[in-house]
Sequence to fold (174 residues):
Amino acid sequence: GESSALYNIGYCYENGIGVEQDNNKMIEYYEKSAESGNSNALFSLGLCYKNGKGVEQNYTKMIEYYEKAEKLENSDAVFNLGLCYENGEGVEQNYTKMLEYYEKAAELDNTDALFSLASIYYQGKGVEQNYSKVFEYYEKAASLGESSALYSIGYCYEKGIGVDQDYSIAIKYY
Fold:
């Protein structure tokens, strides 16, 4: 209801949709919406503090807003918390926590998290290299309609990553 409407007004002010772009009004409406527990507004405020958009850049507040949105299972906030732990942005770098957040975001069907997990298991970054998991994450992303995952599945078949190498199947995905 009302919190979604307030969020949408903030979004319009952020992007100049039907109104003149105004960062002050964007923040005002995102804050009103966030007070009502709108996870998208909480996430958007986190982004604003990350980028210093309409507010002074503040990584501590960024993390606070991401964590509030994460508690409401906002998959983008969960994914971004993973990014923060991967890169040491606003928190101490921690690959264990990074992995936890990426896995939670993947469970919430966040395709960015699925691609990140595939990359992590491909590289063996903080985990044991596991090509079958790489393939599984690409498959899940494709099942959610992420078209770029189809190319990645084709690549897996071409190179034999997590599956038996099969050029005829690879071609179907390209």
Q: What stands out?
A: DSSP finds ten helices and no strands in the chain. The chain has a mean pLDDT of 97. Residues 42 and 68 are 7 Å apart (CA to CA). The two ends are 43 Å apart (CA to CA).
